[in-house]
Design goal:
It is a single chain. This protein has 155 residues and is mainly β. The protein has a single domain, classed as Immunoglobulin-like (Sandwich). It is 0% helix and 57% strand. The strands form two sheets. Strands 2-11-10-4-8-7 form a six-stranded mixed β-sheet, with no helix packed on it. The chain has a five-stranded antiparallel β-sheet with strand order 1-3-9-5-6, with no helix packed on it. A hairpin with a 2-residue loop joins strand 7 and strand 8. The chain is elongated. The termini are far apart.
Length: 155
């Protein structure tokens, strides 16, 4: 049950972008997909308005775009995606969102975010794991939590 000391909020990077670091034209979209869920998954989790901050890893810069949707691990269904009102300040993309899981028929067991990036020319090829996702602030139910954010650049 959320609020129980055994309950944890988990942040997971579901996908990472792969793009050219040599300043060559890059086709297509480059997306970070990040999800949050609560373990154990029973019971509702409603911390209210939560602040999210994503620090982009080396070799990438934010495109001011993002959305979110809920995913249900039991039914494999998603809600329609909704735009996020994102702010970009250098390497940090942030937004606030009324967050809830397992609380109504209109949410799900996971809250999924997709945010767009583009590669930075001149970055040495490699996998960079110096990005960060921070969910929430001290004093909020089971928060803050954080996870590494990584991306891959190719020659």
């Amino acid at each position: 049950m959320p609020g129980d000391p055994a309950t944890k909020v988990i942040v997971t990077q579901e996908s990472a972008p792969v793009g050219s670091a040599g300043g060559k034209p890059v086709k297509g979209f480059h997306i970070f997909t990040v999800s949050i869920h609560v373990e154990p998954t029973e019971g509702e989790y409603k911390p209210g308005q939560v602040h999210y901050a994503f620090t982009v890893p080396t070799g990438w810069k934010w495109v001011e775009w993002g959305n979110h949707y809920y995913y249900n691990d039991e039914t494999y269904q998603t809600t329609p995606a909704k735009a996020l009102d994102v702010q970009v300040d250098g390497k940090v993309l942030s937004f606030d969102l009324d967050t809830h899981l397992n609380s109504t028929t209109s949410d799900g067991t996971r809250l999924v975010f997709t945010v767009m990036v583009e590669p930075v020319g001149g970055t040495k090829p490699g996998t960079y794991s110096d990005g960060l996702v921070v969910v929430g602030k001290s004093g909020q139910q089971l928060l803050p939590v954080q996870a590494t954010l990584w991306g891959v650049t190719t020659p």
